Amino acid sequence: MHASLQTDSLMHPPAYLEGTIMDRADLDFAHLPFAYQKTDANIRYWFRDGVWSEGELTGDEYISLHMAAVCLHYGQEIFEGLKVFERPDGRIQTFRLVDNALRLQRSARKLLMEPVPEDVFCDAVRRVVRANRRFVPPYGSGASLYVRPYEVGVSAEVGVKPSRDYLFLVFVTPVGPYYKAGFTPVRLKVEEQIDRAAPGGVGDVKAGGNYAAGMRATIACKEEGYSEVLYLDVREKEFIDESGSSNFFAIKGDTFVTPASPSILGSITNMSVQQIARDMGMTVEQRPVEVSELPTFQEAGALGTAAAITPVESITYRSTIYTYGKPGVAGPKTTELYKRLTGIQYGEIEDPYGWTEVIEED
Ligand code: PLP
Ligand code: COI
Q1: So what's the pLDDT on residue 10?
Q2: For the chain, percent of residues with pLDDT exceeding 90
C-alpha cells in the first residue's frame, strides 16, 4: 500500500517539486469568490531554540500543534494579506511585498512575538507563489492570487506569557473580488454599539483577535443588507475609524480625506492611493474625520488589499442615509484612483514607485 503510494507520487510529482509552469489550474478564474481554494503547496518555517528553520514547502494543508500552544488560548496570532498579479506579458508580480514584511514585524513586536526577518518573509512569498504558479489567475480575469502569511506562538503554556517558539506559514489562494460585485458601490452602516479596537489596544496591527472582535458586528450588518460596518472612535464616538476589513476614504472637492486614528490598521493600499492622489494633483488629508462630515462628502470608498478600492454609495448613520453619487455608479475621482492603482498592480501601466516586483521563474 505504502509502496504503491510512493510509486504513484513519483510518477506524478506534486507541482511544487517540478519547478516548471504547469497547465493552468482548472478553475473558473473570472468568477472566483473571495474564498479558500486548495492549491499545491504552502511553506512553513519554525522558530525553535532561537533560530528560524529553513522553509519547508509541503502539500499538507494541516498543521500539528500542541493542544496548549499559546496561539490557541491566548491569541498570539498575527497575519498579513497581499496579492500577486499576472501581467499582460504573462509574468507575475507582487505589490509592496516589503511593506507587508515590515508590518508583520510591527505586529510581532506589539504582541511580543518573534519578528520574521524581512528576507525570510519575502523569500517565503516568492517560493510559495512559484510553487503555485498554475493557480495565479490569468491576466484579464480580474482575479489575483491572494497570499496569506501568518505567525503563531506554538509553545505549550498555561501562564499568560509570550510563546518561546513560533510557526510562520504562508499559503495562497486564487480570489475574485472581496465584495461580490467588484468595483461596484457598496453600502456601509455606522456601528455605534460594538467596538473593534481601542486606542491603547492592538487595532493598529494585524492581529487575528481584532477580526474575531468584529465578526458579530459585520455578520449582523450583512443580515440587514449592508456590506460592512464603519466603526467610530471608541472614546467619543465622534470620529470615523475604519471598517472591519479596510480603511475608509472620502472625496471632498479636490481633497482625498482619510482618518488618522490610533486604533486603525495602517493600510498599504491607503498609503499607495494617497501617493497616487497627490500625483493626480489632489490634496491629501490624513486627520481625524468627524462623523458629522458625512453629509459633506462627494465620494467615499473602502481601501484594502482584498477590497482594493471599493466605492461606497451610501452610509447609514442612526436614521439617516447619506448617499454619494448615482446609485450603482462609482464617482469620477474614485474611478480614476482605482484605474491607476489596479493598472500598476496588473502591470498595465508603468510603476513609477518601485512597488511591484516580478517573481522570476526558477
Ligand atoms: N483595515 C483592516 C481592518 C484590514 O483588515 C485591512 C486589510 O488588510 C486594511 C485596513 C487594509 O490594509 P491593506 O491595504 O494593507 O491590505
Ligand atoms: C486584506 O485586505 O488583505 C485583509 O486581510 C482583510 C481581510 C478581512 C480579508
Answers
A1: 44
A2: 91
Q: Which of 38, 180, 189, 206 is catalytic?
A: 206
| Side-chain-facing half-sphere of 27: CA atoms under 13 Å | 24
Ligand 1, CB cutoff 6 Å, lining residues: 81, 242, 245-247, 265, 267-270, 303-305
Average per-residue pLDDT for the chain: 94
User: CATH classification of 15-175 is 3.30.470.10, yes or no?
Assistant: yes
CA of 44 from ligand 2 middle (Å) equals 21
The answer to whether residues 129 and 84 touch, using CB atoms and an 8 Å cutoff, is yes
Which one, of 100, 27, 42, 87, lies nearest residue 305 by Cα?
100
**C-alpha cell of 322?**
447619506
Helices (H), the chain: 2-11, 15-18, 70-74, 97-110, 118-131, 208-223, 268-279, 332-345
Residue 205's pLDDT band (boundaries 50, 70, 90)? very high
206 in active site: yes
pTM beyond 0.85, yes or no: yes
The residues lining ligand 2, judged by C-beta closer than 6 Å to any ligand atom, are 81, 245, 304-306
Write the secondary structure of 268-295 as one string of H (helix), E (strand) and C (coil).
HHHHHHHHHHHHCCCEEEEECCEHHHHH
Domain segments of the chain as ranges: 15-175, 186-345
From the CA of 100, give the closest atom in ligand 1.
Answer: 15
Q: How far is the CA of 245 from the centre of ligand 1 (A)?
A: 6
Domain 186-345 top-level CATH class: alpha beta
**Which ligand 1 atom is nearest residue 103's CA?**
15
